[in-house]
Design goal:
With 417 residues, the chain is of the alpha/beta class. Among the domains are: 131 residues, 3-Layer(aba) Sandwich (Rossmann fold); 148 residues, 3-Layer(aba) Sandwich (Rossmann fold). Helices cover 46% and strands 16% of the residues. The strands form two sheets. Strands 9-8-7-6-10-11-12 form a seven-stranded mixed beta sheet, with helices on both faces. Strands 1-2-4-3-5 form a five-stranded mixed beta sheet. Strand 11, helix 10 and strand 12 form a beta-alpha-beta unit. The longest helix has 26 residues. The radius of gyration is 20 Å and the shape is globular. 52% of the residues are buried. The structure holds nicotinamide-adenine-dinucleotide. The site of nicotinamide-adenine-dinucleotide has 24 residues, from helix 7 and strand 7. Nicotinamide-adenine-dinucleotide binds next to helix 7 and strand 7.
Length: 417
């Protein structure tokens, strides 16, 4: 029986420690990089439709600013905690560094179930939260983007709120905006494209034919549903998918358009006529070749890792696998594409959006996707090279590259004053 921490920030620090040990990182750099640089917690009132007022708690946490402005999504979820956001901010630092993007990591979140609010309540909550965190965000400081339960419309409200404060339009304060106000072509599908580019490289390395693979995807939102569609279009058989309320399974294959239509009609995947109902836990253990966790963190731990049957896992979600599970999966020959690599498509195209916004010069979707493929395949090859050279799995290799890059930036800049 393995005892392990399931605290997200504890997990993030453990993953960092593994890479720091491999790199023989100095104690002073370890202490510096193990904790976030800045944390803002805000408790703010929102007027509800019925005239009452509710106070919500939110965060914006910046892990490290050495390589540039910080960047990371904003999450609306009842499970949001300070530790969760610290962990995700740290992870964003490594994700940016692995792909060579000139950013540090940040993350934001509000403890709320947006599905329980009206659209105008979500707008008022968003504008007030944006106002509260305007102290620390900005095109040269920290640039939010969508994450779980946030979307382009919410980014538009944040951009508008900050622009109203300034008195002029500030498109580069967020990414993942709608196209008509400075968004980038390809941003919506970017996380999924990143997953698919990384999977294609891994499949080539493993001599696996993706077009014949049986795949299971946990989570059916921006990252999950787009990944399902793209893998289906490549010829893969999608045997199982799930959302927060459970999943569906059909060994003969599910059609993404029918799943989407069902979800749009009923609000959930459950009850889809052509498939059997399964739980989220069962989905992770389903008989398949490729598994894509694309929902929340801490899904595969020492408890269930030995029952995972997939040969290849691509982490679209942030932090779905614990360090103890990493070891079990590696021992059973499962190749894991870590979040900081497989999940980097969104941040990469967010970077392209930020660059396009600052230059006011916009690219075609074809240009965006070609540049994205270049970044992800280049990162995959660098990580694979380090993994093979040091006989470590892909997460540790990715962290070794990222931590070294950030440590070098910190060292070169020196300590002020
Ligand atoms: P989303 O809100 O669009 O979708 C989330 C999906 O997960 C929904 O289908 C929801 O029903 C499902 N879900 C929620 N709780 C679940 C649970 N306990 N079990 C199974 N499914 C559950 O969010 P998203 O943007 O697709 O983000 C999904 C994951 O991908 C997150 O971990 C996020 O951090 C990560 N990610 C997103 C982006 C991005 O650009 N959106 C980029 C990189 C990583």
């Amino acid at each position: 029986m393995v005892t392990e921490t399931l605290n997200p920030f504890g997990i993030a620090q453990e993953q960092f420690d593994i890479a720091a040990d491999m790199l023989n990182l100095s104690d002073s750099l370890r202490v510096h990089l193990r904790v976030p640089q800045r944390e803002l917690c805000v408790n703010f009132p929102v007027k509800m439709d019925d005239g009452s007022t509710r106070v919500y708690t939110g965060y914006r946490i910046q892990h490290n600013l050495a390589r540039g402005p910080t960047k990371g999504g904003i999450r609306y979820h009842l499970s949001v905690t300070r530790d969760d956001i610290c962990a995700l901010a740290m992870l964003m630092t490594w994700k940016c560094a692995v792909s060579g993007l000139p950013y540090g990591g940040a993350k934001g979140g509000v403890i709320v179930d947006p599905q329980a609010l009206s659209a105008s309540e979500v707008e008022r909550l968003t504008r007030r939260y944006a106002s509260e965190i305007s102290l620390v965000i900005g095109p040269e400081k920290d640039i939010p983007a969508p994450d779980v339960n946030t979307n382009p419309q919410i980014m538009a409200w944040i951009m508008d709120t900050i622009s109203m404060h300034k008195g002029y339009t500030v498109p580069a304060v967020v990414t993942g905006k709608p196209l008509n106000i400075g968004g980038s072509e390809g941003r919506n599908e970017a996380t999924a494209y990143g997953v698919v580019y990384a999977l294609s490289e891994a499949a080539r390395h493993l001599n696996m034919d993706l077009s014949r693979a049986r795949v299971a995807v946990q989570g059916f939102g921006n990252a999950g549903a787009n990944t399902v569609r793209m893998l289906y279009e490549l010829g893969a058989t999608v045997v199982a998918v799930s959302d927060s309320r459970g999943g569906v399974y059909h060994p003969g294959g599910l059609r993404p358009d029918a799943l989407l239509a069902h979800k749009r009609h009923t609000g959930a995947l459950g009850g889809f006529a052509e498939a059997d109902a399964i739980s989220n836990a069962e989905l992770l253990e389903i008989d398949c070749d490729v598994l894509v966790p694309a929902a929340l963190g801490v899904q595969i731990s020492a408890d269930n890792a030995a029952r995972v049957k997939a040969r290849l896992i691509a982490e679209a979600a942030n932090a779905p696998i614990t360090p103890a599970a990493d070891r079990i999966l590696s021992d059973q020959g499962c190749f894991v594409l870590p979040d900081v690599l497989a999940g980097a498509g969104g941040i990469t195209v967010s970077y392209f959006e930020w660059v396009q916004g600052l230059q006011e010069f916009f690219w075609t979707e074809r240009e965006v996707n070609a540049q994205l493929e270049r970044v992800i395949t280049g990162a995959f090859q660098r990580v694979l090279h380090v993994a093979q050279a040091h006989r470590v799995h892909m997460r540790t290799a990715a962290y070794m590259i990222a931590v070294q890059r950030v440590a070098d930036a910190v060292t070169t800049r020196g300590i002020y004053p």
